[in-house]
Amino acid sequence: MIKVKKHGVILEKTATSFENEGIFNPAIYQDNNTVHVFYRAVRKGNFSCIGYCKLDGPLKVIEKLKEPLLVPETSEEFKGIEDPRITKIEDTYYLTYTAYDGINVFGAYATSTDLKNFEKKGIITPKFTFEEYAALITKNYDQIKKTHYLFYELFSRYKISELMKGKIYVWDKNLAFFPKKIQGKFAVLHRLHPSIQLLCFKDPNELTHSFWEEYISSLGKHIVLLPKLKHENSHIGAGCPPIETKKGWLIIYHAAQATTSGLIYHACAALLDINNPLKVIGRLKQPLFSPTEEYELKGNVNNVVFPTGTALFNDELYIYYGAADSCVAVASLNLNNLLNKLLKQ
């Protein structure tokens, strides 16, 4: 077992209007002893935007903006921009987020050179209805059909789009850029239910409708991790941006476990090959940590730990996560111990 220390809640909702329902699921960027936190702020009615605060060291809040840093601006973002992750590639920061219009969910990103001013670049995930996606996914081999097709086929069979009187598109979310290009291409983890996939491209303009048709038709070639363990029996998704280590790419991801009392979200870990992230070197057979504390067990959504960012102080890896879709909490562990454990799996 990996020894994990839970440090408790460092951010929670305030009386301020844009964050009076919750503060959780933060993007984290570390600059020496300073930790920049870009968190999902939710106001009553479940409308989300991105707030910002700064930490001195891993836990101490020293600055917090009184206004949102990023707000919804398009129809696809009507209900909010959610669950950010942030990565620096060369001289540019890439902040990904989920665009939510109240029904549909897409993956989008914005860029910055100073962590203060961000330019939205728009949606980069596919835009297919459930019926269109189901037709594409049937071109995959049997294992992918079994794990991916059934979910979408049910939506198609019962014509959910017609019942909702509008188009419902396949959800693609949990985007996280790798912190450097791999073989000259941007590499991004994302999640088409229920697995984690790898998207690679040289230029976002490549991500056309026809690109995604080919990608989804051969989805098996792009899958990094399939849900296969007991605590992953519903689905998994990319969590924190990948961490480059001498042993490989460390990914901290989330897993949803279906139980008779509802879903339980766990924090999990895997190690990927440094040159080929589709190759899994090691994967913990048990969750890294799970909801055990009151602030993780009870909230806007019960039984949730949802990791979205990390910071490294000496050999201690701090994992920042949303707890019960209500607040930001932090856990830490020894990085070397975790890597050694993964290499033995």
TrEMBL record:
Q: InterPro entries attached here?
A: Glyco_hydro_beta-prop_sf, Mannoside_phosphorylase
- Indicate what this protein is called per its UniProt record: Predicted glycosyl hydrolase, GH43/DUF377 family
Organism encoding this protein: Lutibacter agarilyticus
Q: Which domain of life is it from?
A: Bacteria
- Keywords of this protein's UniProt record, alphabetized? Glycosyltransferase, Hydrolase, Transferase
Question: Where do the coiled-coil regions begin and end?
Answer: none
Q: Which family does it belong to?
A: Belongs to the glycosyl hydrolase 130 family.
MF GO annotations: glycosyltransferase activity; hydrolase activity
